[in-house]
Amino acid sequence: MAKYHIPVIATIVGLLLFLAGCGIPAGTKPAPPSSGNQSGALSAAPAAAIAAPAHFTALDFITPDTGWVAGYDEWSQTGLKGNKLLHTTDGGRTWATANNAPDGSVLQIHFTDPVHGWMITWKDADKKMTVWASSDGGKTWRRQWQEPSSQIMDNLAMQMKTKIFFSGLQNGYILAGGTLLATTNGGGTWKPVSLPAKFTPVDMSFTGFQKGWVAGQEGTGTNGAGSRPVVLVTGNGGQSWERSFSPPNNAHYMPFSASLSFPTPDDGWLYYKDDAMNGILYQTVDGGKQWKLEQTALASGRTVAGAMVFTDSNVGWLPVDSGAAPLPGGILITRDGGRNWQPAGFDKGWSIEAVSLASSREGWAIGELPNVGNFLIHTTDGGKTWRQLLPALIPTSGISFSDPGNGTGIGLPSDWGAVLHTADGGKSWTEISSLKARPLAVSFPFPKEGWIVAGNPGDRESVLLHTSDGGSTWNTIARLTLKPDMLAPNEPYLQFFNRHEGLWQTTDWPSVALSGTTDGGKTWQQQVNLRRQPGGSAKITFTSPLHGFAVMETSSKTGPGQQDGYNLMKTADGGGTWTTVKHLDRSYWVQCLSFVTPQDGWILAARNPFTSRQQNEVMHTSDGGATWQETPLEYDTASDRSNFVQMTFVNSKDGWLLVRDGILRTRDGGRTWQKCP
């Protein structure tokens, strides 16, 4: 089966389109083959049990069942942490992890069959690019070529411009950091391909070892400024080249934006952005002898289009990264040779970095939902519908449990409108439905019946949705005046106590206002209004229509940043009057709270926040907040990967903590916590 792969370059290039850089580097020479190995046994495990990398960097699928994906957990100037290489042979149901993946960030993966593959990595510590090869499906890797230290490239965009092509197991090309290399012995030796002077290759597309095209730029300006996009063609394996394309009137273009795809020896497309950031698309049907202008505004502006891929003369994909703006990203898909393009994921806020296609209908993509998380997704109908393969399905925006087993969650890294259900206390989740509007808060007092408040950024109002079949279908029962933009990310509050009575947070600033309903959400009346301190936070929870608690930041001075602690207050008349029951000084940073009765409740707080002595504490009270017991929580809920926190309990023992990278559960009232699954 034919395979098409796009390298991960969009994010890096996006930064460089607007930042001054260094000059175009000189070509590099191959290093002698090395016998150095990087190895690690592969052991398959269900997707739910695999710790997916926080950032995906490369992928390659060669059949609907067999594929590889690489990434890392954290980046720093000293190197990557949590570098991972995952492999599946059953379409993503189970994954095997290489325990000792090749060192460095994986820029490119390419397998010609389930056994033989190549990889390009970049290591920040020594600023070297390395080519690795595997002959056992990725279990072990041997180094084939490494960029000499004397040829270190200062231009980051060119470091990340990588691509691999093989025709069989012996003959292939690698584009690495502005240098085109060729091999005729499976990578035992790599030799630079001679190209015209002042030409820097940016992308390549070969239909065989002899026939291929290289897109690049001519120009000597700093960081490629003042350069022109050019396409060269060879019919003899790179021994000689002819000019196939250059833009009319010597038009300039955005450096490094050229993308090239030839699915057949005749049909090809060239994409680039001109110096006004207009997305330009040309097509040829005669192998590059003549080119026709098809598009002049394809993925224009400050979004970053990744490398384009066509599977045949009709179907093509163009991944779009949201860039530094950020603007909506996704995948642009054409089914008529580039004349018309349909978006996928733009309405979901995707930022797509790379794709891999096995056919015109079967494809995979890695990307992210900014400020939510990264994902690997799969389609079998040409991009009309998608399924998230990694990470395992876990809610990202909110959870509500009706009992220790049944819970409902909202949001996925790949779909902010997702509604999920668990029947095993959060160990596994199933996506039940997907809402067009973004869910803001969820409340399920019963396993099958629940409510969601939803609204998209920029909407003038939110909507209240109701389901009686566990979330499969939803009905709009009320329109709420609150604009979605007015809610702070951590503070939407919705709570139904039974089929009729509930509370909803109607404003967040400058006062926290809650309205109540007695008819299942059809009508609402305001009943709580607590004024917040400027710049201060507020957390609120109710155990019944009458009994509730609030944690409000206090200040003895006016103005933001003057908070000196928190007051814990309670009400027994539905918010008409409030009594302060406890003051926490500024050595605490309260993140969330949950009460199940007027006496039994919990607070998650960080002691000595934002210092080297910070310690997260789960605080528990059994006397309505008068006294508290603190238990250390050995989990960094204050890290940048876990900045969304929600706590919910259903009884005195069973509770959950939702953080950005997962769910924690307790069965002993908060004394100990385990990661789900």
TrEMBL record:
Keywords: Photosynthesis, Photosystem II. PROSITE patterns: PROKAR_LIPOPROTEIN. It holds the Pfam family PSII_BNR. InterPro entries: PSII_CF48-like_dom, WD40/YVTN_repeat-like_dom_sf. CDD domains: Sialidase_non-viral. One of its GO terms (cellular component) is photosystem II. Residues 105-198, 308-430, 578-676 form the Photosynthesis system II assembly factor Ycf48/Hcf136-like domain. One of its GO terms (biological process) is photosynthesis. This is Photosynthesis system II assembly factor Ycf48/Hcf136-like domain-containing protein. It comes from Desulfotomaculum copahuensis.
